[in-house]
Amino acid sequence: MCIVAQTTFNYKKFQELVEIIQKKGYIRDIRVLNTICNATEERQNEAASLAETSDIMIVIGGRSSSNTQKLYEICKEECANTYYIQTAADLHLSETGHIDNVGITAGASTPKKIIEEVQKYVRTKL
Fold this sequence. Notes:
The protein is 44% helix and 16% strand. It is of the alpha/beta class and 126 residues long.
């Protein structure tokens, strides 16, 4: 058996899945190929840390982006008020009440211009 991870897969979940399969002991020879890139793992870890200390977490990226979807799932575990948006127009902070800390992260392919627009929106609305 060979277990391979997509390059943008959640690193923590991948480790958990491999451990579960190994503990079951159904298969003696398991080959594990961790193809998750370092940049993806670092971004996921940083996003989780940021979400822990944020009142609101904003994840920016395309709906079909696996990378961004994984970031959203990770952030949602740490911060209940996590929003998955594609542009600043998708964000409506007036509905959220009092906010001290806002965390922002984005998928690897999210254009810098969109990230900057979201940052500007957050600064002006808070």
